[in-house]
């Protein structure tokens, strides 16, 4: 009986230690509150630097800016890690060696952003002129000036490309270290910093860089700071990611645009052909009908299933928030859905619509398919399943514009660009001792539940760290879930940025 | 026997008169050859005036330019016929009273053009900077200067918006009259000229103008100069037009764009929803599956069927030219196809494609449907059949952006804009005496077969002339069939412009 009581008391004590906010976290919070003005000023300048793949010079400026940030913070060995191809956005690296530390953590974030189409952003916004709002735009947020007194409200938002994905990650990591340093604390482990510039382009040179700088990049754990917290607003730790790959499809019809009156219902319509092809890929219940699409999937382990069960349900909240009353696969929860491979249309276009519409039969119709993968899937194999399906619909498949000869020979012609931008899924075991410390450190920052998510719906090239460095990874996201990342009107909630600084700081204190 | 011989001789004589090119036509041809430089200069200046619906001031400049053209030619009563709404592009009117003439012909063309998206035009082209090429662009045409000596080759092309649709019509009519006048000929009938400025916008004020100027517009026949000659290159007379109407469809999903990783295959994808909806509208043989879609159609009369049989088959030629090896409805010829109602996708869009593509689930997907109608169809009834079909697929239909309440209530939401731009089909009997004269006059311009086409695939608001003026109409098109009208890279073949002047001139000589 006493024995049981002892265990009960011990677990109560541990519970208090990890679930309450630790003094060190409160110290970091204090730093954030006192320095919010400077932190946001620097962040805002950072956001005003264009960081899209189409503008390599802009990417270089971002890298230079991060180097300055690191130098100002006294970080050592600040340098660019370059791929062999000139012009590739470099990785920005730096490190802090802590006397007596037994472990080394590498903190990862990326400074590049998704492409922008300014015309799609709200008219008061410019992707590279960060603006402060009193709340989210769709929650009646109104523009406010950056406050001169440095007092920020947690519900305010900053709008701009990469405000959350993932310049917030870079800033949270560097300001967490700044806070530790300035407040007289000492990190518990050696720190390395690794800020990538090609994540949104599918990290095409990450493998090369990891291999080239293998010895510099030795560590006990990579902490990936990217993606959103749980939709419930609770912090989360993510143990894996879905893989991702794409297919660009273009269906061809007449070589020149045709008058829809003079040729309508004689000449083939590529938009209708593409619609039929895409429609053939899913059934009425949102299940992918492509042969073998759900094969290869490695089921979740019992502990992962248990964690999944404890993930708070946000389905009804999300449906309300997104203004939808039905989901794609009736009866499948969001948590279940992201543990399956998916097929999505990212974009689709043929001819013109709206005011630009004209009475024509377009010459082609195009769509971009996004395939998400889970553990067990191979991205090339998954692409091939889709290609085989297209072939089975009677299409001749080419990788180029069709030649006149091909046009004569084949009734249905499609260009399929499968590219080389695929990545497989990855999952880190929850039971490793170092991962248990990470869980405890994140729990130390909040009185609330910390969501343990077996797999993130999104994708990061985490398999590369395993492949080239035999490294462990853990993902600790900080952005608000309604951040519009990858689309127009991207934003970060102020509270999430400062929570992120605390979370990163708590992880840096792990011994 | 002698009686039969007499009839044989008489019909031989008539055949010679009508099938050989008449001296008057040769006189007009001579004028065209001698004045090609001036004709093209004026045409080219005309083409450089932007004439899109989005630019009302530009439309006014076009109207003013036509008035000057008429005044230079000594045409009488030159004036603008205005709708009651200010800013509506006016009709340009003028007339020539011929002493002793017993009939009045009104020549119709339109000066407005389809919307332009300059980015879609070939890079060496600008829609409103007409350029001369040695041949069609897709026949290896190269740019050439407008010749100082005024010698033009029939195969050359002028590229620019409305080069064929339908500023060529305006110019052919006015230059035909100029030729008659300058060469000392006298028109056989009174001439009226009617140049519309809103045809490509669906002629929304034509009814009002026809009613308002009813007495001014009295005539025995309207000659509509619009559309292309037969694809065989032969001239054609068209006795009717298909009707036309549109539906703008927008399927809604999440209120904000979503990351396709974090929400992919949980949140509904509007592009997939739209693809499925569009795909449901046609079967694998290109037949429209919408209930009752082919009902109401009045079959062709025996004489129309005979004319249709004599239309030269261009299906194989067109397939080769367009680079297609299959047509939408297997076994149905082009001539047959345009005598049926049709459903076409003019444009379709969701999210972004190509370099602008991003990993998102779009918030909406939109498409523009074009419905062509034949005699017997009513445009509102035809729209309703499509709307009923959409409803039968489980959609809630609205005419506005969905409200939050509607989003909560309905799983599938679509905005359908049916507009008021519909027009029904029209057909004039081949057997009327005045129509027989028109056939003879066109035959007099060519040794080649004149194609008699019961129905044009395209649409013109000809039912309005019947409705408001109880007038007869006949369509005599002049543009080359491969003119890219309604799309990028619109052009006119030089030979077609001058043939058009002869044809219009021959019609003006009808007594």
The greatest interface here is: A-B, 104 and 104 residues
This entry's quaternary arrangement is homodimer
**What does the average pLDDT of chain A come to?**
93
Mind telling me the C-alpha Rg of chain A?
Answer: 25 Å
Give the CA-based shape of chain A. globular
Structural class of chain A: alpha/beta
Fraction of residues in H or I helices of chain A = 25-40%
Distance between the termini of chain A: 34 Å
Largest sheet composition of chain A: 6 strands, mixed
Model regions low in confidence, pLDDT < 50 over at least 5 residues of chain A? 1-20
Count of strand segments of chain A? 21
Strand order of the largest sheet of chain A: 1-2-7-3-8-20
Number of helices of chain A: 15
Describe the structure.
- Two copies of one chain form a homodimer.
- Chain A is α/β, with parallel strands linked by helices and 511 residues long.
- Helices cover 33% and strands 19% of the residues of chain A.
- Chain A is built from 15 helices and 21 strands.
- In chain A, the strands form six sheets. Chain A has a six-stranded mixed sheet with strand order 1-2-7-3-8-20, with helices on both faces. The first copy, chain A, has a five-stranded mixed sheet with strand order 13-15-11-17-16, with helices on one face. A four-stranded antiparallel sheet of chain A has the order 5-4-6-21.
- In chain A, helix 12 links the parallel strand 16 (396-398) and strand 17 (413-417).
- Chain A starts with a helix and ends with a helix.
- At the A-B interface, strand 11, strand 12, helix 7, helix 9 and strand 13 of A face strand 11, strand 12, helix 7, helix 9 and strand 13 of B.
């Amino acid at each position: 009986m006493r024995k049981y009581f002892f265990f009960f008391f011990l677990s109560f004590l541990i519970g208090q230690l990890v679930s309450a906010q630790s003094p060190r976290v409160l110290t970091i919070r204090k730093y954030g509150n006192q320095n919010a003005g400077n932190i946001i000023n620097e962040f805002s300048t950072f956001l005003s630097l264009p960081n899209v793949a189409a503008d390599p010079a802009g990417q270089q400026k971002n890298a230079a800016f991060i180097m300055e940030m690191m130098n100002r913070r006294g970080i050592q060995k600040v340098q660019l890690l370059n791929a062999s191809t000139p012009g590739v956005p470099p990785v920005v690296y730096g490190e802090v060696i802590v006397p007596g530390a037994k472990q080394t953590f590498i903190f990862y974030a990326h400074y590049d952003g998704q492409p922008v189409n300014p015309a799609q952003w709200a008219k008061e916004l410019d992707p590279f002129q960060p603006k402060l709002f009193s709340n989210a735009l769709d929650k009646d947020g109104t523009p406010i000036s950056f406050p001169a007194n440095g007092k920020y409200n947690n519900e305010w938002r900053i709008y701009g490309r990469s405000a959350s994905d993932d310049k917030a990650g870079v800033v949270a990591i560097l300001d967490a270290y700044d806070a530790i340093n300035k407040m007289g604390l000492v990190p518990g482990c050696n720190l390395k910093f690794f800020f990538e510039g090609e994540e949104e382009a599918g990290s095409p040179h990450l493998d090369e860089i990891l291999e080239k700088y293998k010895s510099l990049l030795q560590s006990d754990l990579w902490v990936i700071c990217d993606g959103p917290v749980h939709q419930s607003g609770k912090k989360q730790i993510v143990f894996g990611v879905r893989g991702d790959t794409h297919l660009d499809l273009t269906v061809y019809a007449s070589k020149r645009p045709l008058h829809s009156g003079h040729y309508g219902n004689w000449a083939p319509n590529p938009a209708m052909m593409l619609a039929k092809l895409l429609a053939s890929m899913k059934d009425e219940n949102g299940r992918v009908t492509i042969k073998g699409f759900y094969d290869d999937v490695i089921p979740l382990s019992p502990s992962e299933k248990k964690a999944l069960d404890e993930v708070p349900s946000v389905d009804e909240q999300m449906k309300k928030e997104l203004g939808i009353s039905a989901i794609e696969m009736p009866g499948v929860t969001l948590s279940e859905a992201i543990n399956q491979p998916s097929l999505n249309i990212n974009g689709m276009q043929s001819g013109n619509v709206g005011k630009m519409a004209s009475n024509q039969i377009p010459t082609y119709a195009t769509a971009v398919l996004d395939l998400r993968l889970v553990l067990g899937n191979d991205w090339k194999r998954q692409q091939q399943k889709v290609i085989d399906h297209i072939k089975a619909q009677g299409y001749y498949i080419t990788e180029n514009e069709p030649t006149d000869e091909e046009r004569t020979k084949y009734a249905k012609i499609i260009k399929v660009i499968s590219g080389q931008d695929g990545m497989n899924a990855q999952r880190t075991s929850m039971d490793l001792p170092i991962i248990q410390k990470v869980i405890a450190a994140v729990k130390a920052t909040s009185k609330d539940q910390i969501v343990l998510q077996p797999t993130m719906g999104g994708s990061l090239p985490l398999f590369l760290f395993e492949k080239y460095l035999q490294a462990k990874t853990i993902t600790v996201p900080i952005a608000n879930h309604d951040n519009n990342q990858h689309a127009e009107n991207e934003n970060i909630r102020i509270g999430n940025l400062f929570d992120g600084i605390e979370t990163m700081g708590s992880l840096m204190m792990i011994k």
